[in-house]
Design a protein that fits this description.
Length: about 60
């Protein structure tokens, strides 16, 4: 039996697929990652926006 490799890839998502990709990689709901980024946006934006943009640039898109 061949094990499927679990790679971190951006998924089709709400904005850029970052939360969907993280959720698929870790095996949890994308809701929790979206909630985390929204909470990080509350203190002024940068604590949530900067990591999201960096992940958007670093994580490759899902190939079909």
């Amino acid at each position: 039996m061949i094990a499927k490799e679990n790679k971190l890839r951006r998924q089709n998502g709400v904005v850029a697929g970052v939360c969907g990709g993280l959720a698929a990689f870790f095996g949890i709901s994308a809701f929790w990652f979206r909630l985390l980024f929204v909470i990080l946006l509350l203190p002024g934006g940068l604590p949530g926006l900067l990591p999201y943009i960096l992940l958007w640039l670093i994580i490759p898109p899902k190939r079909y």
